[in-house]
Amino acid sequence: MSVPQLSIILPVLNEAEGIAATLDALAPLRAAGHQLIVVDGGSHDHTVLLSRERADEVLDGPRGRARQMNAGAAVASGEVLLFLHADTRLPPAAGEHLAAALAHGAVWGRFDVHIEGRSRWLPLVASLMNLRSRLSGIATGDQAMFVRRDVFQRLGGFADQPLMEDIELSCRLRAVRRPACLRARVVTSGRRWDSRGAWPTIVLMWRLRWRYWRGVAPDELAKAYR
Fold first, then answer.
1. pLDDT tens sequence across 131-160
2. Helix axes 198-213, 218-225, angle to 10 degrees
3. Ramachandran region of residue 191, left (φ > 0), alpha (ψ -120 to 50) or beta?
4. Which of 70, 160, 186, 199 matches a 20 to 30 Å C-alpha distance to 153?
5. What are the Cα distances from residue 105, in Å, to 14, 37, 97, 164, 179?
6. How many structural domains does the chain have?
7. Quick check: is 1 in a domain?
Protein backbone atom coordinates (compact mmCIF):
# COMPACT_ATOMS: atom_id res chain seq x y z
CA MET A 1 0.00 0.00 0.00
CA SER A 2 1.47 3.34 -1.03
CA VAL A 3 1.73 6.04 1.62
CA PRO A 4 0.37 9.44 0.55
CA GLN A 5 2.82 12.29 0.81
CA LEU A 6 2.87 13.65 4.32
CA SER A 7 3.72 17.10 5.57
CA ILE A 8 4.80 16.67 9.19
CA ILE A 9 4.44 19.95 11.06
CA LEU A 10 6.13 20.57 14.42
CA PRO A 11 5.36 23.76 16.37
CA VAL A 12 8.33 24.41 18.68
CA LEU A 13 9.46 26.82 21.37
CA ASN A 14 12.76 26.42 23.24
CA GLU A 15 13.07 22.69 22.48
CA ALA A 16 16.85 22.56 22.01
CA GLU A 17 17.26 19.79 24.56
CA GLY A 18 15.31 17.25 22.55
CA ILE A 19 14.61 18.60 19.07
CA ALA A 20 17.58 16.91 17.40
CA ALA A 21 16.48 13.47 18.60
CA THR A 22 12.88 14.16 17.56
CA LEU A 23 13.87 15.21 14.05
CA ASP A 24 16.46 12.45 13.65
CA ALA A 25 13.72 9.91 14.41
CA LEU A 26 11.77 11.37 11.48
CA ALA A 27 14.72 11.17 9.07
CA PRO A 28 13.52 7.91 7.45
CA LEU A 29 10.19 9.51 6.57
CA ARG A 30 11.98 12.54 5.19
CA ALA A 31 14.29 10.28 3.16
CA ALA A 32 11.19 8.57 1.76
CA GLY A 33 10.03 11.90 0.34
CA HIS A 34 7.79 13.21 3.08
CA GLN A 35 8.04 16.87 4.04
CA LEU A 36 9.23 17.95 7.49
CA ILE A 37 8.31 21.48 8.60
CA VAL A 38 9.42 23.09 11.87
CA VAL A 39 7.68 26.29 12.92
CA ASP A 40 9.45 28.20 15.68
CA GLY A 41 7.53 30.52 17.95
CA GLY A 42 10.45 32.71 19.06
CA SER A 43 12.93 30.37 20.75
CA HIS A 44 15.89 31.92 22.51
CA ASP A 45 17.91 28.71 22.63
CA HIS A 46 19.42 26.65 19.78
CA THR A 47 16.16 25.09 18.57
CA VAL A 48 16.27 26.78 15.16
CA LEU A 49 19.96 26.05 14.61
CA LEU A 50 19.52 22.38 15.41
CA SER A 51 16.45 22.13 13.17
CA ARG A 52 17.83 23.68 10.01
CA GLU A 53 19.86 20.70 8.82
CA ARG A 54 17.20 18.21 9.89
CA ALA A 55 14.03 19.67 8.32
CA ASP A 56 12.88 20.77 4.87
CA GLU A 57 11.44 24.04 6.15
CA VAL A 58 12.19 25.97 9.34
CA LEU A 59 9.85 28.91 9.70
CA ASP A 60 9.74 31.84 12.10
CA GLY A 61 6.08 31.84 13.01
CA PRO A 62 3.91 33.90 15.33
CA ARG A 63 3.98 32.49 18.85
CA GLY A 64 1.08 30.25 19.72
CA ARG A 65 0.67 26.59 18.82
CA ALA A 66 -2.42 27.13 16.64
CA ARG A 67 -0.79 29.98 14.73
CA GLN A 68 2.43 28.03 14.28
CA MET A 69 0.63 24.97 12.96
CA ASN A 70 -1.41 27.11 10.56
CA ALA A 71 1.81 28.74 9.34
CA GLY A 72 3.29 25.31 8.68
CA ALA A 73 0.15 24.13 6.90
CA ALA A 74 0.27 27.21 4.66
CA VAL A 75 3.57 26.08 3.09
CA ALA A 76 2.85 22.34 3.19
CA SER A 77 2.80 20.41 -0.07
CA GLY A 78 1.74 17.00 1.25
CA GLU A 79 -1.63 15.41 0.66
CA VAL A 80 -1.94 14.80 4.40
CA LEU A 81 -0.91 17.08 7.26
CA LEU A 82 0.41 15.43 10.42
CA PHE A 83 0.79 17.69 13.46
CA LEU A 84 3.44 16.45 15.87
CA HIS A 85 4.59 17.84 19.22
CA ALA A 86 8.33 18.28 19.65
CA ASP A 87 8.41 15.79 22.55
CA THR A 88 6.47 13.06 20.72
CA ARG A 89 7.74 10.13 18.65
CA LEU A 90 5.74 8.37 15.96
CA PRO A 91 5.32 4.59 16.07
CA PRO A 92 7.15 2.30 13.62
CA ALA A 93 5.44 2.17 10.23
CA ALA A 94 3.38 5.25 11.10
CA GLY A 95 2.96 6.06 7.42
CA GLU A 96 1.57 2.62 6.64
CA HIS A 97 -0.90 2.80 9.54
CA LEU A 98 -2.06 6.19 8.34
CA ALA A 99 -2.32 5.04 4.72
CA ALA A 100 -4.49 2.09 5.72
CA ALA A 101 -6.89 4.40 7.56
CA LEU A 102 -7.15 6.74 4.60
CA ALA A 103 -7.72 3.82 2.25
CA HIS A 104 -10.74 2.89 4.35
CA GLY A 105 -12.26 6.34 3.93
CA ALA A 106 -10.81 8.33 6.82
CA VAL A 107 -10.16 12.02 6.24
CA TRP A 108 -8.60 12.66 9.65
CA GLY A 109 -7.59 10.87 12.79
CA ARG A 110 -5.03 10.35 15.50
CA PHE A 111 -2.85 7.70 17.12
CA ASP A 112 -3.19 6.18 20.55
CA VAL A 113 -0.66 7.59 23.01
CA HIS A 114 1.82 6.20 25.51
CA ILE A 115 3.20 8.67 28.06
CA GLU A 116 6.77 8.30 29.31
CA GLY A 117 7.54 9.69 32.74
CA ARG A 118 8.20 9.04 36.41
CA SER A 119 4.64 8.86 37.70
CA ARG A 120 3.08 5.42 38.06
CA TRP A 121 -0.25 7.00 37.06
CA LEU A 122 0.82 7.84 33.51
CA PRO A 123 -0.24 4.50 31.97
CA LEU A 124 -3.71 5.08 33.40
CA VAL A 125 -3.75 8.67 32.14
CA ALA A 126 -2.83 7.48 28.63
CA SER A 127 -5.41 4.69 28.66
CA LEU A 128 -8.17 7.06 29.73
CA MET A 129 -7.08 9.62 27.14
CA ASN A 130 -7.25 7.01 24.39
CA LEU A 131 -10.61 5.70 25.55
CA ARG A 132 -12.13 9.17 25.91
CA SER A 133 -10.92 10.09 22.43
CA ARG A 134 -12.30 6.90 20.89
CA LEU A 135 -15.72 7.41 22.50
CA SER A 136 -16.00 11.15 21.91
CA GLY A 137 -14.37 11.49 18.51
CA ILE A 138 -12.18 14.27 19.93
CA ALA A 139 -8.40 14.18 19.49
CA THR A 140 -5.67 16.04 21.34
CA GLY A 141 -2.35 17.31 20.07
CA ASP A 142 -0.46 14.68 22.09
CA GLN A 143 -2.01 12.03 19.84
CA ALA A 144 -0.40 13.27 16.60
CA MET A 145 -3.49 14.45 14.74
CA PHE A 146 -3.53 14.03 10.97
CA VAL A 147 -5.93 15.39 8.35
CA ARG A 148 -6.19 15.60 4.58
CA ARG A 149 -4.84 18.96 3.53
CA ASP A 150 -7.87 19.84 1.38
CA VAL A 151 -10.22 19.19 4.32
CA PHE A 152 -8.03 21.24 6.66
CA GLN A 153 -8.01 24.14 4.20
CA ARG A 154 -11.74 23.93 3.59
CA LEU A 155 -12.41 24.23 7.32
CA GLY A 156 -10.04 27.15 7.73
CA GLY A 157 -7.41 25.40 9.84
CA PHE A 158 -6.96 25.80 13.56
CA ALA A 159 -8.92 28.53 15.30
CA ASP A 160 -6.77 31.44 16.47
CA GLN A 161 -6.93 30.64 20.18
CA PRO A 162 -4.21 29.99 22.77
CA LEU A 163 -5.60 26.74 24.20
CA MET A 164 -7.96 23.91 23.23
CA GLU A 165 -7.27 24.51 19.54
CA ASP A 166 -7.05 20.75 19.02
CA ILE A 167 -10.45 20.16 20.62
CA GLU A 168 -12.04 22.99 18.66
CA LEU A 169 -10.76 21.64 15.34
CA SER A 170 -11.77 18.09 16.30
CA CYS A 171 -15.36 19.24 16.78
CA ARG A 172 -15.47 20.70 13.28
CA LEU A 173 -13.74 17.69 11.75
CA ARG A 174 -16.08 15.32 13.56
CA ALA A 175 -18.98 17.01 11.79
CA VAL A 176 -17.35 15.96 8.50
CA ARG A 177 -16.52 12.39 9.55
CA ARG A 178 -15.62 10.42 12.64
CA PRO A 179 -11.85 10.18 13.21
CA ALA A 180 -9.69 7.17 12.53
CA CYS A 181 -8.50 6.16 16.00
CA LEU A 182 -5.31 4.24 15.27
CA ARG A 183 -4.20 1.79 17.94
CA ALA A 184 -0.53 2.18 17.04
CA ARG A 185 0.93 4.37 19.78
CA VAL A 186 2.92 7.55 19.66
CA VAL A 187 5.24 8.02 22.64
CA THR A 188 5.06 11.41 24.28
CA SER A 189 6.91 12.93 27.19
CA GLY A 190 5.31 13.04 30.62
CA ARG A 191 7.29 16.14 31.58
CA ARG A 192 4.10 18.14 32.14
CA TRP A 193 2.84 15.59 34.65
CA ASP A 194 6.28 15.09 36.21
CA SER A 195 6.92 18.80 36.77
CA ARG A 196 3.49 19.66 38.17
CA GLY A 197 2.59 16.35 39.72
CA ALA A 198 0.37 13.75 38.08
CA TRP A 199 -2.84 14.27 40.05
CA PRO A 200 -2.67 18.10 40.13
CA THR A 201 -2.17 18.04 36.34
CA ILE A 202 -5.03 15.61 35.80
CA VAL A 203 -7.36 17.74 37.91
CA LEU A 204 -6.22 20.92 36.17
CA MET A 205 -6.79 19.53 32.68
CA TRP A 206 -10.23 18.16 33.49
CA ARG A 207 -11.19 21.46 35.09
CA LEU A 208 -9.99 23.39 32.04
CA ARG A 209 -11.91 21.11 29.68
CA TRP A 210 -15.05 21.41 31.76
CA ARG A 211 -14.80 25.21 31.76
CA TYR A 212 -14.16 25.16 27.99
CA TRP A 213 -17.32 23.14 27.37
CA ARG A 214 -19.15 25.63 29.59
CA GLY A 215 -18.11 28.45 27.23
CA VAL A 216 -15.20 30.04 29.11
CA ALA A 217 -12.96 31.97 26.70
CA PRO A 218 -9.72 30.18 25.69
CA ASP A 219 -7.70 33.29 26.66
CA GLU A 220 -8.92 32.97 30.24
CA LEU A 221 -8.25 29.23 30.26
CA ALA A 222 -4.71 29.80 28.97
CA LYS A 223 -3.99 32.07 31.94
CA ALA A 224 -5.17 29.35 34.33
CA TYR A 225 -3.09 26.74 32.51
CA ARG A 226 0.08 28.76 32.75
1. 999 999 999 999 999 999 999 999 999 999
2. 170
3. alpha
4. 186
5. 37, 26, 13, 26, 10
6. 1
7. no
Residue 45, amino acid:
D
**CB contact at 8 A, 209 and 222:** no
Residue 134 and residue 181 in contact, taking contact as beta carbons nearer than 8 Å: yes
Query: Does 129 reside within a domain?
Result: yes
Residue pLDDT, tens place only, 175-205: 999 999 999 999 999 888 788 777 888 788 8
Q: What is the pLDDT of residue 202?
A: 79
**For residue 30, is it within any domain?**
yes
Identify the CATH number of the domain in which residue 28 sits: 3.90.550.10
| Domain presence at residue 73 | yes
What range defines the domain where residue 57 resides? 6-225
Task: Determine contact, residues 136/143, Cβ cutoff 8 Å.
Answer: no
Distance CA 180, CA 94 (A): 13
